[in-house]
Amino acid sequence: MTLKSKEAIALSVNLICAKTFLMVPIFFKRLAESGSLILVAYIFTLAFAFMFVYLFTGKIKIPKLLIPLISVAVILVCSINLFEYSRTVSALFFKSTPLFVIFLFFAVAMTVGAYSHIGKLNLFFVPIIYITVFIMLFFTFSDGNYYYLFPIMGKGFKTVFGDGFFMLSSLFEAIILFFIPEMLEDKKDTKKVAAFTLIFSFAIYLVITAACLITVHTDLPENCFSPLFLILRQIKMGTYFQHPDTAFLIIYFISSFLYLSGMLFFLCNIWGKMSKKALYIPLALLILILALNGDKLMPLTLSLNKVLWVFPFILPIFSRRSLK
Amino acid sequence: MKNLFKKLFTNIQRKSFNIENAFPGNVVYPDVPEYIFPSYDDNLGIVQTVFHTDLSSDIKIREFNCSGKRAFIVFIESMIDSNRINTHILAPMMLISSEATEEIVEKSLIVVNQLTVSSTFDDAFYSLSLGDCVVFVDGIPKAFVCDVKSWERRGVEPPVSEAVIYGPHEGFTENFKTNGALIRKNVHSPDLISEMLKIGKVSKTPVTVMYMKNIANEGLVNEIKRRLKMLDTDYIFQLGQLEQFLEDKTFTLTPQFLTTERPDRACDCLIEGKVVILMHGSPFALVCPVTLSEFFTTVEDKYVRFPFSNFMKVIRLIAILSSFLLPGLYIALINFHIEMIPSDLLFAIEASRESVPFPALIELLLMELSFDIIREASIRVPSSIGSTLGIIGALIIGQSAVEASLVSPISIIIVAITGIGSFATPNYELNMSFRVLRYIYIFAGAFFGFGGIAFCLFVHVAILCASKSVGAPLFAPFSGFSLRRLFEFPVWKHEKRHTTANPKQIRLQNKISRKWVKK
User: Fold this and answer.
1) What is this structure's pTM?
2) What residues have CB less than 8 Å from B512, skipping those under 6 apart?
3) pLDDT tens for residues A111-136?
4) 469-488 in B: which are within 8 Å (CB) of A?
5) Closest chain A residue by Cα to residue B454
6) Contact B71, B40 (CB under 8 A)
C-alpha cells in the first residue's frame, strides 16, 4: 500500500491531532498539573522518533513477528477508545439514547471511513476540525487566568516525569508514525511528514493545553468527562450562540470517527494488500464486541499502558534490523 | 494519479473480452442477409419487407430506369430534401445515357457531396434511418448512400440551465453535428479529434467522442471508447441514459459526469485534457472525468475578474451547504440543542410554534414536500399560467398555512432559504442529489441532533472520497490539495492544467504569459 505524501501527512496529522484533541478529557482529568511538561516530553518524543525515521536509508518494513503483537495492541486500544468515546457522548448529549445505538454509530462510521479513502477524509475534515477548535479556544483565553499556566512548580520529580512518561504510553498512536514512511513513494517525504506533524501537533497541543490550564485549572469535578466541553461553556459571544459548546459535539464526533477509522485502516493495512478490504468488517465487529465489554477491558488496558510507551523507542531498532 | 490510472486500467483489462466478437453478425435484421444482392428484385423485396412499406406511409420507394437498367431509390419522406433528390440524383441518373456500372454511378451520375458505397444491408439501412437516400441499381451488389438529410431542427439558442451574463449566449442543440461544429469553431486545433461511434444495437445512435490528441491521456480516451463500444443494449436515445450506463458507481447520489449545454465550457474541458461526449438528439455534452468542485463552478467564474469570481464561489458554497444542511441543523437545534439559540430568538420561535399542532419534524417535512411539489409542478406548468403557480405557492402555502396554524413562520423562512440555496447550485443533477440528501439530514437531525448530522456528514464525505469519475477521484481537490481548484486565480496565473484528467501536457501557458511584464 502506497499513499501519496500529502495523504500520508494527513493521516499522521490526524492520528496525532485527533487523538490529542480527543484525549484532552482524560489527560486533564488525571494530569492537569503536569500538562506543560507532558507537552514538552511529547514533542521531544516525536522529534526523537522522527530522528530515527529520518536516519533510515530505505522504507520501513514492519517486522513480521511484530505484526500480530501490534494488531492485538491496536485492537485493544481501538476498543477502549470506542468504549470511552461512546460513553462520553452518551453522558454528555444522548442521556436517554441506549449506549448500544451510540456504539453502532461509531462502529459504522469507523468502517465506512476506513473503507473510503482515509487520506482524503483527513484532508477534508482535519482543517475544519482544528480551525473550529482554534476559534473556540481563542475565545476562552479572554476568560482565563494566566497565573494558572504554571501549575507544575513544586510537584516533584515523580509526578512530573513518572506520570508524564506513563501518560506518553497513551500516545501509542505515535507508533503509527513509524509506518507512515512505508506508505510514502519517496523517502524525501519523510521529512515533510515529520515537519507537518510536529508543527500541527505542537500548535494544537499548545493551544489546548494553555486553554485548559488557564480556564479549567485543576479543580475538575469527578464526573467531568471533558474539560474541553467545560471550557467551551465559558465562551461568551455577545448575545449570539449563548452555549456554543453543543457545536463541540459535531467536532468531537467527527474527530472520533476519523481517529477510529484511521486506526482500523492502519490495522488492516499492516496485514497486506490482499486481505485489506476483507478485513474491515470483521475487525470492526471484533472491536465493537470488545468495546461493548469495555469495563472488563479497562484493567488490561491500564497494564498495557505501562508497556506501550516503550514501543516508539524499541520499534525503530527492530525495523532497522528488518531492513538488513 | 498515474498509478491510479494504471491500476484501474489493468483491472479492467483483466475483465475485458474481445470487443470484435461482442456483436456478431447482423443483429438488427437477423433474417436479412448480410450482403447486398446484385439482383434488383431481391433487393427491392428485402427493402419492402424490412421497412414494412405496405404499412409505413413515410417510407418511399421510387423505381426508375438508369441507362436501360432497373433501379430504385428509397428514403424517408420527412427526413430528406426532395429538391436535392430530384435534381442531384434522379435527374442525372434518368436523363444521362451511359453504362450504369458501379464506378460511373458513383463518380459521374450521382451529384451529391457525400456519397458512400455500402456493400451490406446493415450499413445502408442505418444510413436510411438517419435520413439518407439509398440507391440500388440492378446488377450492382452495392448500395449508394447519398447524404440528402434535411430534418426539422432547432437553431442555436441560449442555454437554459447555464445562463450567464458575461459570456457567449449559445447552447448545444439536438443535432450532434451542429454541436461538434460549435466546439470546433472555438478550438482551432488540428489536434481536436472527433471520433464517431454507434451506440445501441438497434437504435445505433451516433455518439461523438471529442478530445485533444496532444493533451488528453490516452488511457482515459481508450477507457471511454472501450466502455462505449462494450455497451450491449438495443436502444439508447439520450445522454442521460448513456451517463447511467457509463458511470462507475450506480448507487451514489452524486453525479460522476458533468453535463453541460455550453460549447465554451466543453472547450474549456477539452483543453484541460478531458473527454467530451456528444450524442445525437441530446442538447448536452457529457464531460469526464470531473471533480466535485467543478459542479460548484460556472463557466462565468473564468470570465469575470478573479476577486468577483471568488466572492461568487464563496456565496455559492454557502448557498449549496444551506440547501441540504440547513433544515437538518434547524431541527437539531429545535429538538436537542436549544441552549445554543439566543434566548430572545428562542422565545420568538417557541411563540410562533405555540399554535402549531405538529412536531417540528412533521412541520418541516410538510413544508419541504410542498416546496418540492411546487417545484416539480412548475417544470410542467405552461408558461402562461406560471405566475398563477407562484401566487398559489406564495399565498396558499405560505400565508394560509401560517394562518391555519399548520406551520410556523420560521420553518417557512428555513424552507425558503433552502429552496433559494438549491437554485444557486449550478448543476442540475447535483441539485437533485441535494434534494434527496436534505431529507436524510432532516431525519438525522430530528432523531440524533448534531450527532446524527455529524455521522451523516462523515459518511457522506467518506462516500464522496471513495467515488470516482472514470477512474479519477471525484473528491480530488482534497486528495491532491490545491487552492487553485477551490479558488480562481488571475488568468495569467493559470500556468498549469488540473491533474484530474492526468493530461499529457501539464503546462497550460508560460510562466510569464504577459510578455511585456519584466521578470
Assistant:
1) 0.79
2) B519
3) 998 888 776 777 778 778 777 777 77
4) 473, 475, 478-481
5) A250
6) yes
